């Protein structure tokens, strides 16, 4: 379904496949190897409470041209742009514990971990966005670095709700569909 100009309430679903995880027919997840949409390797990141995309256009290189003598801005080139996706989940999962304590890869079957033993998570983030009538409006598959950015409440006063940030990294397989 194409995205038409309209007012929307958009809800997001987020899934992640970690670099090095096995998917499909014994393939390894990586920048140049993305799991298919219905692959069991996608980890559901939980109920998404909010999701925001941001883009920093990067550094501007101004090009000036004499017209005929005075220099006027003629063109502008941009370099080093970044794109980030920030979201909060309302569920704590094994991958949330992995991100919070920087452990090695954890699964729902994990029973022990060593804090600080892991590395920053990279992998494929799949975002599915739906409107208020449950019509899928936007799907993104992006290679990214995924980190926890906020505090997680373990005090019993609120939900243990991890806040995530995905810094989108370059891959020829990054895609979006409307």
Give a verbal description of the structure.
This protein is mostly beta strands and 178 residues long. It has one domain (11-56, 73-177): Pnp Oxidase, Chain A, CATH 2.30.110. Helices cover 4% and strands 45% of the residues. The chain is built from 1 helix and 12 strands, in the order E-E-E-E-E-E-E-E-H-E-E-E-E. Strands 1, 4, 5, 8, 9, 10, 11 and 12 form an 8-stranded antiparallel β-sheet that branches. The protein has a two-stranded antiparallel sheet with strand order 2-3. The longest helix is centred in the middle third of the chain and has 8 residues, at 94-101. The relative contact order is 0.23.
Topology at a glance:
Elements: E1 11-18, E2 22-23, E3 27-28, E4 43-44, E5 48-56, E6 59-66, E7 71-79, E8 82-89, H1 94-101, E9 121-130, E10 136-148, E11 163-168, E12 175-177
Antiparallel strand pairs: 1-4, 1-9, 2-3, 5-8, 6-7, 8-11, 9-10, 10-11, 10-12
């Amino acid at each position: 379904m194409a995205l038409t100009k309209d007012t929307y309430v958009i809800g997001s679903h987020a899934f992640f496949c970690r670099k090095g995880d096995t998917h499909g027919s014994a393939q390894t997840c990586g920048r140049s190897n993305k799991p298919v949409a219905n692959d069991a390797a996608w980890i559901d990141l939980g109920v998404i409470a909010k999701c925001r995309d941001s883009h920093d256009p990067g550094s501007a290189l101004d090009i000036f041209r004499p017209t005929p003598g005075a220099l006027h801005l003629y063109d502008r080139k941009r370099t080093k742009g970044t794109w980030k996706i920030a979201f909060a989940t309302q569920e704590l999962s094994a991958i949330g514990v992995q991100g919070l304590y920087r452990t090695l890869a954890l699964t729902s079957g994990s029973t022990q971990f060593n804090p600080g033993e892991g590395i920053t998570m990279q992998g494929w983030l799949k975002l599915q966005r739906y409107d208020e009538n449950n019509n899928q409006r936007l799907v993104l598959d992006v290679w990214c670095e995924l980190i926890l950015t906020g505090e997680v409440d373990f005090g019993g006063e609120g939900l243990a709700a991890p806040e995530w940030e995905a810094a989108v990294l370059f891959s020829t397989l990054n895609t979006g569909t409307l």
